[in-house]
Amino acid sequence: PITLSHSGPEHEIPEDDSEEQLEDVIDLARVFSEALSLALP
């Protein structure tokens, strides 16, 4: 599974949540890219 620098106890994620985690990563990337595009001039 993908390990992100997480500031929470949920570090080792069961295999069952891999697909749900992938969706979280995609959402996070989308939000990050939007914030980045807003931050840039």
Report on this structure.
This protein has one helix and no strands. It is an all-alpha fold. It has one helix at 18-39. The mean pLDDT is 78. Helix content is 54%, strand content 0%. The longest helix has 22 residues, at 18-39.
Q: What is the helix/strand order?
A: H
User: Poorly predicted ranges (pLDDT <50, ≥5 residues)?
Assistant: none
Number of strands: 0
**Which outline best applies?**
elongated
Q: Give the DSSP E fraction (strand runs of 2 or more residues).
A: under 5%
Number of discrete helical segments:
1
What characterizes the major β-sheet?
A: none
Briefly note the structural class of the backbone.
mainly alpha
Distance between the termini: 35 Å
- C-alpha Rg (nearest Å): 13 Å
Mean pLDDT: 78
Helix coverage percent of residues? Answer: 40-55%
